[in-house]
Specification:
The protein has a single domain, classed as Beta-lactamase (3-Layer(aba) Sandwich), CATH 3.40.710. Strands 4-3-15-14-13 form a 5-stranded antiparallel sheet, with helices on both faces. The protein has a two-stranded antiparallel sheet with strand order 1-2. Helix 3 packs across helix 6 and helix 4 packs antiparallel against helix 5. Strand 11 (236-241) and strand 12 form a beta hairpin. It is globular. Helix content is 37%, strand content 20%. With 333 residues, it is α+β, with helices and mostly antiparallel strands. It has helices spanning 2-19, 43-53, 93-104, 135-143, 148-157, 162-175, 196-199, 212-224, 226-232, 299-315, 324-330; strands at 33-34, 40-41, 66-71, 76-81, 87-88, 110-112, 132-134, 191-192, 205-206, 209-210, 236-241, 246-251, 263-271, 275-282, 289-296.
């Protein structure tokens, strides 16, 4: 009778051990760790999970081909790389276009959109040929949305036409002493050479060029102009067409306007040849930092990084605080 009682028990224990084998990992309360929901997780899985959760190190390198961070009140360069190398500047050109237009064309002047406007490459606002737009609205499209069609329309309405505008732009920068800055178009787009054979070759073009250092000086003067500065800081605008009763909504191309940064003025630029370009002026506290990046894969990231590092240098005493006399110089127009 005892055997008949014990034998089934032994069989049940054997079966139980097969289904639920004992292991060293389940021997103690510290072998497994609790996770959310009250479940347990083996140590090797915990280690793997922790490894996956580890944040990848963020690169602190500036990837732009060239950049320059300068204190515009003292002209002291705080940080730079290849700042004197001539490079394409794309739509940073439009800062000079705006400067020259403001010197020669009244804000309320109405300009007719030319017939060939549809052939202007992007970025465009979408102006319709034959419409009439005021100079001040065209400047909004030029500086907020970086509209190449706005640049073309302003150029066609400029006294003497497009060639005279480009000539005036080059004279303007040469007067400032900039010897490595040259413009071929008012928009920043590359200009194809005239010959039929050359026109077939996309590489045979003239690009508007400057250096990060010279472009920083140009941007300083541009942002000192209240009209250019105030327009560049707007996130959007609606252009009114007076001949065709059409409206053209414009949105900013400058993502830095979404950041909580003391931005004082800014202009973006891009072509395939130039890469991404950005000119920005910041006024954190008593510091003034003007940053230009050229040929960047991510101009916003690079600008933020240069700004952060330059601000540390300024706060540690390596930068210069504005003086009353230099402050007066920067607040012209």
């Amino acid at each position: 009778m005892f055997r008949s009682f014990v034998f089934p028990i032994l069989v049940m224990l054997c079966l139980f051990s097969l289904v639920y084998p004992l292991s060293p990992c389940s021997a103690g309360p510290k072998a497994n760790a609790k996770i959310e929901g009250g479940d347990t997780m083996p140590p090797q899985k915990i280690l793997k999970k922790a490894t996956l959760k580890r944040a990848k190190p963020v690169s602190q390198a500036v990837h732009a081909k060239a950049y320059c961070c300068v204190d515009p009140l003292t002209n002291q360069i705080i940080m730079e790389r290849n700042a004197n190398e001539p490079l394409p500047v794309a739509s940073l050109t439009k800062l000079v276009t705006a400067m020259v237009v403001l010197e020669h064309m009244p804000l309320d002047m109405k300009v007719t959109v030319p017939e060939h406007i549809k052939t202007v490459p992007r970025t465009v606002i979408g102006l319709k040929s034959g419409d009439t737009i005021t100079v001040v609205d065209l400047l909004h499209g030029l500086l907020i949305g970086s509209g190449n069609d706005c640049a073309e329309t302003l150029a066609c309405g400029f006294p003497g036409g497009k060639d005279k505008l480009i000539e005036a732009m080059n004279k303007r920068v040469k007067k400032l002493g900039h010897t490595q800055t040259t413009f071929y178009t008012p928009s920043g787009l590359d200009r194809k050479n005239d010959s039929t054979e050359a026109a077939r070759n996309a590489q045979d073009v003239d690009s508007n060029v400057s250096t990060a250092k010279e472009m920083a000086q140009i941007a300083r003067i541009a942002f000192a102009n209240k009209i250019i500065r105030s327009i560049s800081l707007k996130k959007g605008h609606v252009i009114i067409g007076h001949a065709k009763s059409t409206t053209y909504p414009v949105r900013t191309t400058n993502k830095l306007l979404k950041d909580n940064l003391p931005l004082y003025g800014g202009k973006t630029g891009f072509t395939h040849r130039a890469g991404h370009c950005l000119a920005s002026e910041f006024r954190p506290g008593k510091n003034v930092l003007l940053i230009v990046v050229l040929g960047s894969p991510d101009h916003f990231r690079d600008t933020r990084l240069v700004y952060k590092n330059a601000l540390k240098k300024s706060d540690s005493g390596k930068g210069s605080a504005p003086t009353p006399s230099s402050q007066k110089t920067a607040s012209t127009k």
